[in-house]
Amino acid sequence: MDYSTLIGNSFEYAKDGLVKNIATWIILILLTVLPVIPFILVLILMLPSLMTGAMPDIPTLVGGFVVAFLLAIILSAFYMGYLLRILRGEVPLPVVSGFGRLFTDGIKYIVIEIIYFLPVLIILALTAGAAILSALPIITAMSGEPDLNALLPIIGGVVAGVLIAVIVAFILGLFAIIGLVRFARTGKMGEAFNFSAIFATIGNIGWGTYIVALIIMAVLVAIVQLIVGLIPFIGGFVQLLIAPFISVFVARYLCMVYDSAVDTVVPSSITTP
After folding, report:
1. Which helix (H) or strand (E) segment is 167 a member of?
2. Cis omega (within 30 of 0) on the bond before 92?
């Protein structure tokens, strides 16, 4: 696998698709902001009580943020659905259209991701979560300086649980990426969990080649985010502006990694009229 070709092709795909189609870039920025709106509304509703200095009702506050979180997930479906079109192999970058289809595809995308990473949440709940719950009586019983010797096993349990969860998340992520591309190509959610085919695809790419490609992509994105984050005053605004570019780059990059396998389910690219 030629990693420089992967990077160069993905960058040109994003550049040509967004710089030459500013309307698409603007719409994608709006779709990026869309999931944030529920949280903004919750903060606006809290504003009167905060201005009076009154303590907000904790159950109402927690409930509001839970609802906002769920709405944010639902609203992110439009953006996820669009990324699936890139994973499908559409060339050049498609315009943002067919919002009903984007939404339904995005919901399926989210469901697939939730199913894949449900084991990670279970591991965290059974390890780190259980350790934290067992620490509560000890902390409550303490007076004055905390007894670190008593808390050390609990801290170790939390660290071990998080470490196991990270390892499992990494392994599941390897399969989830190929599974999502298979779903994008076939339109069948079951193909996202066709592990025999996923194993075969990764085997054809090469496990080492595949992992190195993902590491290179992650490092590139992290470097860009770090550089932008260091920009004073307007760093957050710049991150918002380039978020669609990064997403398109990553989706195209993963699409090409998938297509580097010897045998793919469908043709490696679909040219839109």
Report:
1. helix 148-186
2. yes
DSSP 146: -
Q: Tokens for 118, please give them.
A: 């449900």
Match 């943020």 to its residue by tokens.
65
Q: How confident is the model at residue 273 (pLDDT cuts 50, 70, 90)?
A: very low
Tokens of 69: 């979180």
Query: In Å, how far are 106, 109, 258, 263 from 190, measured between CA atoms?
Result: 15, 12, 18, 19
Q: Is 144 left (phi over 0), alpha (psi -120 to 50) or beta?
A: left
CA atoms within 13 A on the CB side of 59: 0
Q: Please, which pLDDT band fits residue 53 given cuts at 50, 70 and 90?
A: low
Domain ranges for the chain:
3-271
- Say if residue 243's pLDDT is above 70: yes
